[in-house]
Structure formats: C-alpha cells, structure tokens
Amino acid sequence: MRTVLVTGGSRGIGAACVRAFARDGWVCAFCARHPGPEQEAVVRDTGALFVPCDVGDPAQVEALRDTLLSRFRHLDALVLNAGISLSGLCQDMSEADFDLLYRVHLKGPFLCAKAFLPAMISRKSGSIVTVSSMWGQVGGSCESAYSAFKAGLIGWTKALAKELGPSGIRVNCLSPGFIDTDMNACFGPEVLEQMRQDTPLGRLGRPEDCADAALFLCSEAASFITGQLLSVNGGLVT
Question: Annotated catalytic sites, by residue?
C-alpha cells in the first residue's frame, strides 16, 4: 500500500491533497493543530487517519511519527503543507508573530522531515513535497516575514533534494499563486477580482489545482524529478 501524511490537512490545499491521494488509492493520514468540523468532513470523505499535531512542537511531531509508523509501518510520501498567514507592515509586526510564522513555515517542515527521514532512508524510497508560495519567489507587500520563510522553504527543499537523492528520496516544492481558500477569505471582493484579472488564465486557483500537482510529484510519473519548484499560479508569476 502507498501511504502519505499531509500536514495542515483539515482544510484548503491540505484537505484537497488528502482527498486527491485517497481517490488515487493511497492510505492517507493528516494532521492539524485543532480538531474541528473541517477535519471531521475530511475523515468522513476519505477514511483518512487524523492525528492532532502542532508541527512546531518536537514532542508532538515525534508522537505523530510513532502513531503513523505503528499503524502504517512505513511512509511513502510527506506533504508539508501546514501554514498560516499574518499580514501587516514590517514595523508593526510583533516578535511573537514573527516567531510564530517561522515556527510553522520553517521549523515545522524541518521537524517533520527529521522525524520521518530515518524510516524513508532505511527503505531507500520516499517523496517529500513542500508547499511554499509565489510570495516566496517575488516577495509580497505586507507579507515580509511570510515571504521570507516561504523563500527559505524553497531553498531548504532544493538543498534537501541534493542531500537525499543518493538515498532514493525525492524532494520538490509547490509554489501556489492566489488560491481560493479560507486563508484568502479576508480579502474583499474588489481584491479578489483584481487578482483574477491579474492572473493570465483569468481565474483564481482552486485547492484541487495544487493537490493534483502534489499527487503528480509523489507519483511514479515524477520518478526523475527532484529539487524542483512547480509554480501553480495561473501564470501570475513566471
């Protein structure tokens, strides 16, 4: 059986990933910080295993690893999707918010990879997909810290791909554009319409667009692809 863990899998891109992998016959697990109705819907739709976990907490990540490896025996793919957005001017951002963004977007992927890599390396097999952002490529106004950590995630992905290639493990990165998710629900209709008009394909992205890309990168069809950044942005950033 093919097994996958999706972090931040209760809604948005993460939930779409769980559903896409489940439809393709994978045995799925996902985590999120807090149980809720979104998580219950994903479990109901996919039969996936849900494990509460704050990916920035080493003890919780280790417990997540132990639970999954006990249940699945191995993990074929890891989709590092957990993320949050805190917008605002640099001079107005608190140190606590800066640290929180780092904890979720860089420390979390590091802790999760560190936890599951020994088992992947021992099997000489595995695929890791990180989820960055177009702001990690070009920077976003009022998103300076978010942009910095998403850029760091891209660099970390490329370095890890070189490190793990000899062990048969592939590591790639998705860079979503403006996706129609709860994270962007704070923007008014005028902003959403402007983003739609600015996107060459003439629409906002769907979570399923990113999920299909993640599924491809974890599939045998991508067996010779590693260290790559796959932009899913409708042509907004090239």
Answer: 146
Q: How many domains does the chain have?
A: 1
Whether residue 190 lies inside any domain: the answer is: yes
Q: Which tokens sit at 229?
A: 């950044």
Q: What's the token pair of residue 223?
A: 């067996």
**CATH at 171:** 3.40.50.720
pLDDT in tens, 61-120: 999 999 999 999 999 999 999 999 899 999 999 999 999 999 999 999 999 999 999 999
Q: What are phi and psi of 84, to 5 degrees?
A: -140, 165
Question: Which long-range contacts does 70-73 make (Cβ < 8 Å, 24+ apart)?
Answer: 71/29, 72/1, 72/3, 72/27, 72/29
Residue 177: which of 201, 152, 153 has the closest Cα?
201
**Is the predicted pLDDT of residue 186 greater than 90, yes or no?**
no
Distance CA 164, CA 94 (A): 36
3-class DSSP assignment, residue 177: coil
Where on the phi/psi map is residue 202: left (φ > 0), alpha (ψ -120 to 50), or beta?
Answer: left
Q: Show the domain range for 154.
A: 3-231
> Would residue 170 count as lying in a domain?
yes
